[in-house]
Amino acid sequence: MENLFSEGLSLMIFGMGFVFVFLTLLVYTTRGMSNLVAKYAPDAAPAAAKPKPAAKPAAAAAGNNDELVAVITAAVHKFRS
Predict the structure, then answer these.
(1) For residue 34, what pLDDT is reported?
(2) HSE of 55 in the Cβ direction (CA atoms, 13 Å)?
(3) Which of 48, 53, 66, 80 has the most Cβ atoms closer than 10 angstroms to its Cβ?
(4) Cα Rg, the chain, nearest whole Å
(5) What are the angstrom distances between the C-alpha of 55 and each of 20, 27, 32, 50, 60?
(6) What are the residue ranges spanned by the domains of the chain?
(7) Is the pLDDT of residue 63 over 90?
(8) Helix (H, G, I), strand (E, B), or coil: what is residue 80?
(9) What's the sign of the alpha-carbon dihedral 23, 27, 32, 36?
């Protein structure tokens, strides 16, 4: 029983060590690739700014709210029935 326990313990330590080394290597590899891409890839041209839509009058927004409330009420009523 002692031998089985020590083998399990050594296997656990080996496995955890392997995962730690692999993840550390993965982090450094990812950082290195990121640095290479940032160094050699050209910067993307900034996208053209979209014009903002004109603000709606307060009366139109209030009417739109009433319609939204009616749609939500109908959906809740349909769900409950």
Answers:
(1) 92
(2) 3
(3) 66
(4) 30
(5) 55, 47, 47, 15, 10
(6) 2-42+56-80
(7) no
(8) helix
(9) positive
